[in-house]
Amino acid sequence: xxxxxxxxxxxxxxxxxxxxxxxxxxxxxxxxxxxxxxxxxxxxxxxxxxxxxxxxxxxxxxxxxxxxxxxxxxxxxxxxxxxxxxxxxxxxxxxxxxxxxxxxxxxxxxxxxxxxxxxxxxxxxxxxxxxxxxxxxxxxxxxxxxxxxxxxxxxxxxxxxxxxxxxxxxxxxxxxxxxxxxx
Length: 183
Known about the structure:
Layout: H1 2-5, H2 13-26, H3 30-37, H4 43-49, H5 62-78, H6 80-98, H7 103-120, H8 124-132, H9 135-143, H10 150-155, H11 165-179
């Protein structure tokens, strides 16, 4: 856990994708789960903070984001406390993205963040908590940035429009909408 909270996690896809599984293994008993959740600095926050670090840019891609989300989903299924801590940490990370001083960086992270959310938001409980904590509002705020070039996305000039910020955001809203009646 110290590697995570002291920001010593190697910037390689395998280390990033394995981090939630390590926490899951450390929290197999009620006592060790408590130790993980009450550690001096949240290791779950530390994993989400990776999305905000420039040095991890090279190892982030669609597969890593989805694998990371799946590993978080496993952690969330392990216990309600892990589930709550994971959703809370994800919303903290989104808040940090909305205050990012370089909007292009926030937009570049949006598609990976939303791909990570897809497997994480598989339960009605997780979706409801995400909504109640303002997760969708934060995603919309990032997406509303003038840096998102919707004309470029519509024209197909985007090199990979399937992974565009707009399609990624739409995917998350559809996932949530299927589990929680929003209106």
